[in-house]
Amino acid sequence: MAGPPSLPFGAAKTLDSSGNATSDAYTPSGAGNYNFRAVYAGAAYFAGSQSADIAEPLVVAKANSTTATLLSASSTTLGESVTDAVTVTGSPTIPTGSVIFQISTDGGTTFIAFGASQTPKRQRSRYF
Questions:
Q1: Is the peptide bond prior to 92 cis by the omega test (within 30 degrees of 0)?
Q2: What is the pTM of this model?
Q3: What residue segments make up the domains of the chain, in order of their start?
Q4: What is the pLDDT of residues 19-57, one digit of tens each?
Q5: 3-class state of residue 50 by DSSP
């Protein structure tokens, strides 16, 4: 039974005197499951062969991110607005996508989403 198409990476490697070779480095393109295999083309006295299709699984986890926010003011007067700026960092690259800003009016127990700026309606603490 034929499996899905294979994508070669790197150039063919010459076996050493013990029959060993090492692939080029491979950097996965995203999080998910990958399977590696090797295909031996054969030589004058040996038929070709390949390793099992799922003998070398690799699970790639999503990279970690860190989210930091900075409120435009730590106190305000009723009727004035504040904004919340966010920086999302990660490794090995800068994260992409979007963020949802949320606000809590009960000390951080529950949060609801809000737009880019928030004008407090009642005088009490707001937690971003």
A1: yes
A2: 0.60
A3: 1-62, 65-118
A4: 999 999 998 988 999 999 999 999 999 999 999 988 899
A5: strand
Residue 43 tokens, joined: 């030589």
Q: Exposure string (b/e) for 74-110, b if CB count within 10 Å is 16 or more?
A: eebeeeeebebeeeeeeeeeebeeeeebebebeeeee
d(C-alpha 84, C-alpha 70), whole Å = 6
Is residue 84 within a helix (H) or strand (E), and if so which, with residue range? strand 82-90
How many residues does the structure list for the chain?
Answer: 128
Angle at 90 between CA 100 and CA 84, to 5 degrees: 35
The alpha-carbon radius of gyration of the chain (Å, integer) is: 27
In whole angstroms, give the CA distance from residue 85 to residue 65: 16
